[in-house]
Design brief:
The chain has about 150 residues and is of the alpha+beta class. It is built from 5 helices and 5 strands; from the N terminus they run E-E-H-E-E-E-H-H-H-H. The strands form 2 sheets. Strands 4-3-5 form a 3-stranded antiparallel beta sheet, with helices on one face. Strands 1-2 form a two-stranded antiparallel sheet. Helix 4 crosses helix 5 (about 135-145). The protein is globular, with a radius of gyration of 15 Å. The mean pLDDT is about 95.
Length: about 150
């Protein structure tokens, strides 16, 4: 078992894990950050998306031992942030399982200067899968956050 200090949500966290353990499981099972979801396990669906150095990454395909940059999960976003507010205002989630990963990708785009257009944001979300089909509500929330 390896031990490493990870920077997660602006906190240094020392954690033990196996050499071949994906970041997803370290965050969920070892650090208790349950907003990071297991979906497909091969980086396709996006439910496990976190930010690595403010860039979206599929945590199911990244080994924890290889991460040396700050990690942000949904738990690390202020609840008053415009993305969180838009998701609430537009009642985006249905079951909500995939929404953490989608929110993380949208949040990452709010960190860009200049802000991307809503249409560019929506194009970048095309790799996320929502089984409940809340795409129209996602689009409404995105259009509320980003200029067109």
């Amino acid at each position: 078992m390896l031990t490493k200090t990870l920077s997660v949500n602006n906190q240094k966290r020392q954690v033990g894990f196996f050499e071949d353990e994906p970041l997803l499981w370290v965050l969920r099972e070892r650090l208790g950050l349950r907003a990071v979801k297991f979906g497909c396990g091969i980086g396709i669906c996006g439910a496990c998306t976190v930010l690595l150095n403010n860039q979206p990454a599929r945590s199911c395909t990244i080994l924890a031992k290889d991460v040396d940059v700050p990690i942000t999960t949904l738990e690390g976003i202020d609840k008053s942030h415009p993305v969180i507010r838009a998701w609430i205002d537009y009642q985006v989630p249905q079951c909500g399982y995939c929404q953490g990963g989608i929110i993380m990708s949208v949040y990452a785009m709010t960190l860009r200067k200049p802000l991307p257009s809503a249409s560019n944001v929506l194009k970048n979300l095309s790799s996320h899968i929502c089984r409940c089909g809340t795409y129209e509500r996602i689009a409404k929330a995105v259009r509320n956050i980003f200029p067109e």
